[in-house]
Write a structure and sequence with these properties.
With about 230 residues, this protein is an alpha/beta fold. It has helices at about 20, 80-85, 115-120, 185-190, 205-210, and strands at about 45-50, 55-60, 70-75, 95-100, 130-135, 145, 165-170, 175-180. The protein has an eight-stranded mixed β-sheet with strand order 1-2-6-5-4-3-7-8. It is globular. The N and C termini lie far apart (about 45 Å).
Length: about 230
């Protein structure tokens, strides 16, 4: 409020305004809570990236000093396949792991990629390998990991078109996530793409897969998808 980042006229649950409710609040102590003029850090750790690999956006919780990586894609169709490859020593320094078909519809449920990130760190590759996925991460994520890529691969997003060896660029400062392919090449690959046979699910999971929308719009159920 004091930094003029919020609308003071907004109502609160007790009927007063946000400005009135916070008027007498004590000033931040500078040790636990900080002012907007003197923040704990100049920026937060969350960054939204866009580009031809994530037209509708992707998210990074930056848990490393690396702000840029460019490297060859190593493509995996599931979290388990990627985890097994890392643990088998098949992933090299500088690789950009691509884990797809783990988004809201593909998972289904936008699975958490913690086993992959933990395996990368355990293999001593946490500061040299990056990960790009339409799945999600938790607060325990370490390294340069890009999640929530939208549109997801199961719905024909560009992540579905990536092949081993394609050059992927992650640029935090430029807020870009790209694959070094031209529009024509991407269009040709999309025309040839066919949805994979995803793991069979029934009951509520089948209903969720059929109705869920994009992660970029909250992964909510949308009846018009049927």
């Amino acid at each position: 409020m004091r930094g003029d980042f919020l609308d003071g006229s907004a109502p609160t649950v007790d009927g007063s305004t946000l400005a009135a409710s916070t008027h007498d609040a004590p000033a931040p102590d500078g040790e636990v809570l900080f002012t907007s003029d003197e923040p704990f850090k100049p920026t937060g750790a969350l960054h939204a990236l866009r580009g031809n690999l994530a037209p509708d956006g992707s998210l990074v919780k930056l848990a490393t000093d690396r702000r840029f990586q460019q490297g060859p894609a190593r493509v995996f169709e599931s979290e388990e396949a990627c985890t097994d490859a890392v643990r088998a020593g098949l992933v090299q320094e500088g690789d950009v792991l691509v884990v797809r078909y783990e988004g809201p519809a593909g998972g289904p449920g936008m699975r958490e990629m913690l086993s992959v990130t933990a395996s990368v760190v355990g293999a001593g590759l946490g500061e040299s390998v990056a990960l790009v996925t339409d799945g999600r991460f938790s607060g325990a994520t370490r390294g340069l990991m890009v999640g929530h890529v939208a549109p997801e691969a199961a719905r024909g997003g560009p992540l579905a078109l990536v092949r081993d060896g394609d050059l992927i660029t992650i640029d935090i400062d430029a807020k870009r996530l790209t694959v070094e392919l031209g529009d024509e090449e991407l269009a040709e690959r999309l025309a040839a793409w066919r949805p994979p046979a995803l793991p069979a699910v029934g009951g509520v999971f089948a209903r969720y897969r059929a109705l869920v929308g994009s992660a970029s719009e909250g992964a909510v159920l949308l009846p018009d998808l049927v």
